[in-house]
Amino acid sequence: MRKLPELLSQLLESPLYGLTLDRPLPPEQYGVYLFVDESDAAQYVGRVGLTERSRREGKRFSSFRTRVRGHTRARHSEGTFAYFRTCEFFRSQGRPLAATRDDNCAAPEFTVEFRRQCSLVRDMGVHVVEINDNKLTAVFEIYAATVLGLPQSFAVS
After folding, report:
1. Is the predicted pLDDT of residue 126 greater than 50, yes or no?
2. CA distances, 84 to each of 31, 52, 58, 151 (Å)
3. Which of 3, 22, 26, 60 registers the highest number of CB atoms within 10 A of its CB?
4. Are 48 and 33 in contact (CB under 8 A)?
5. What does each C-alpha distance from 131 to 47, 84, 103, 112, 123 come to in angstroms?
6. Beta-strand (E) ranges in the chain?
7. Cβ atoms within 10 Å of 18's Cβ, excluding its own
8. How far apart are alpha carbons 139 and 25 in whole angstroms?
9. pLDDT tens by residue, 83-118
């Protein structure tokens, strides 16, 4: 596990990618990615690899590019970071949330904010570090989020 601090340095020092015209698209590789705001402050860590669900469905690895784009889609099964931001927004406004993601995504006022958050995420920069070991990506994702103090959960799929 001595690799983890070195990988974090590589992640933080990597070029800034994104989905806007002023940034190059993320590479077609996999590993761990970090969304950052306009001041390069860490916002969200994710990983690209082969999940157990994907393996069961016969799917292959996705890439940084595919995964980052997925965060900008306001759909029930996509937009994880934007969904998290939407829930945080609702909580900060004292607005109620439904018990399930399905129910939240069915609510028109939630959907409007979810789409707005997807747009904000689309404008963020992304740092990446290529990691070819799927188990190491899982451990490093949690390590990076913890060290960076990011309030996120980790789905096991």
Report:
1. yes
2. 21, 22, 28, 10
3. 26
4. yes
5. 9, 25, 36, 36, 25
6. 17-18, 31-36, 42-47, 125-130
7. 18
8. 25
9. 999 999 999 999 999 999 999 999 999 999 999 999
Residue type at position 56 = R
CB atoms near residue 43 (< 10 Å):
20
Under a CB-based contact definition with an 8 Å cutoff, are residues 11 and 32 in contact?
A: yes
- pTM of the full structure: 0.88
Query: How far, in Å, are 11, 28, 54, 95, 96 from residue 125 at the CA level?
Result: 12, 16, 27, 29, 30
Candidates 96, 75, 81; CA nearest to 150 is 81
Which residue type occupies 31?
A: G
pLDDT, position 157 = 47
53-91 pLDDT per residue, tens: 666 777 666 788 888 998 899 887 789 999 999 999 999
Q: In the prediction, which pLDDT does 153 show?
A: 76
